[in-house]
Structures are given as C-alpha cells and as structure tokens.
Write a structure and sequence with these properties.
Shape: elongated
Order of helices and strands: HEEEHHEEHE
Distance between the termini: 18 Å
Helix content: 40-55%
Number of helices: 4
Structural class: alpha+beta
Amino acid sequence: MKSVRVPLSLQQAVMRTMRQKLVQASHFLQETFPEPNVTYRQRGTIAGSARLQGWEIRLNPVLLIENQQAFIDEVLPHELAHLLAYHQFGKVAPHGKEWRFIMETVLKVPANRTHQFSVHSVRNKIFTYCCRCRQHELTIRQHNKILRGKSCYICRQCGEKLILLEQIE
C-alpha cells in the first residue's frame, strides 16, 4: 500500500492539540503523562487506534487530511483517552465508564465511540451478499474467507446462509 504524506502543518496541529489535552489531563489528574508516539499508519475506515502497551496513537492519514480540524478535535482525544484510561485504571472495557470519564470529565470532549466521517475514499471493495430478508455488505476479507471455505456467514435476523449477489466498487 502506498503511504500518504501528512502535511507538516497538519502534523503540527495534531501535536499542538495532543500537548494541550495532555496538560489538561495532567492538571485534572495531578500527574504528568509522557507524550505518546503519534504515527500516521492507520488504514481502512478506522480513524485511529491506541496501542496501550506501546503508548502510541495511530492516525489514518487520509481521513485526517480530508477532515482536518474535526478529525483532530474528535479522534485525537478519543485515542488519547484510551491511553489515559489504561494508565489510570489498567485494563478496562474499551469504551467503558473509565474511558467515558476521561473523555467527558477530564478532556471535556463528547464520548463518541465511532466517527461520522465519510469513508468513501478509504473503503475497500464491498461484496453484496443476500439472504431471505435483506442484503448484506461484506468486506473483501470476509468474501475471501468464504471463497477459501474458512467462513460461512449467517444472517442474524432470518438465520439463512448469505449468498453472493454482486460486487460494488
């Protein structure tokens, strides 16, 4: 996969917000936190992820470039909250009460579990499968598992096995 270069000004905006949120957390929790390593290697439709043991935040460069400030304001605190919740409380539910506390009370950001950014530019091929009651969109990974005989997907509503209908780009 070809890597996407994030403009320096955008990287600086990310780090500026990261540092502001760390100061905010340090004041509230009366503790100094190290600056996480921020990389731009997240792929697919996921906006970001937190590597807890490595104290690292991975951001999706394409979604960052497309959504800039909204991305920085939403995704960065979301991932930082995962790191801070792990640091403060240990292993907890990914979007549980501890994470929500860090998001809403400490970082003063709405605790949204998922982003609402358009993912059209980063979405892989989708394969349409159907059952008795509706159509289902499966990823290329799910489709390939079916082709290799490693998986069989069943509709949760009608219980019928999914059958390939067509491919969407």
